[in-house]
Amino acid sequence: MSLLFLQGAALGFAAAVQPGPFMAYLVNQTLTLGFRKTWMTAFAPLISDGPIIAIAILVLVQMPSWLQRALNLLGGFFILYLAWNAFQQWRNFVSPDAAPLSSGHQTILKAAMMNALSPMPYLYWSLVTGPILISGWKQSPLDGLSFLAAFYLVMIASLLVILAIFGAAKGLGQQVSRILLGISVLALALFGLLQLWQAFQGI
């Protein structure tokens, strides 16, 4: 199993369990309508992320190599920032279901719009996953595709598990959500340090 595949899986997992408007929206809709009516919303990033990835890659590939290395360095610090933020959220845990409930019938398009309006996908693909995807693609298109596949497979699978847990048992969902958030702290810290090391190696 390649390092790029592991990076994609770890970052996909971390993206799925990070508290935020998108996660709160999905969890609240699951608590309101049940898992059977909302499970498909876990696939919303497949709809919303396409244009975001295209824009990020288009901008990144036109940058000079020194600026790409600087972005890799900045991305490493950004991942560590995400790890610190996730640790603070884990320490002072507030369940995603604490946000106000949304009304109306849930659709995957509404969830995709919520994700597209959130700043996190843009930051992720500009500073973190975009540079890694480009680096992997330069090594081999198969490496780039394996990173992308791992990212979305793990992210969607994690979202489905989280929504299923919240749909089955509210209290259990909160406990598991906090555990998953704690795991994401470790994963983010590890890969943040790894990206910093790789960036310094390229200088």
Question: How would you portray this structure in words?
Answer:
It is a single chain. The chain is an all-alpha fold and 203 residues long. The longest helix is centred in the last third of the chain and has 33 residues, at 170-202. It has helices spanning 3-17, 21-33, 35-38, 44-61, 65-91, 108-116, 119-139, 141-168, 170-202. It has one domain. Helix 5 (65-91) packs across helix 7. The protein contains 9 helices and no strands.
General form: globular
The class by helix and strand makeup works out as: mainly alpha
Mean pLDDT: 79
The percent range for strand residues is under 5%
What's the story with the biggest beta sheet?
none
Number of strands: 0
Helical segment tally?
9
CA-CA gap between termini: 27 Å
Q: Which H/E pattern describes the elements?
A: HHHHHHHHH
Q: Radius of gyration in whole Å, from Cα? A: 17 Å
Total number of domains = 1
User: Which stretches of 5+ consecutive residues score pLDDT under 50?
Assistant: 99-106
The proportion of residues forming helix, as a percent range, comes to over 70%
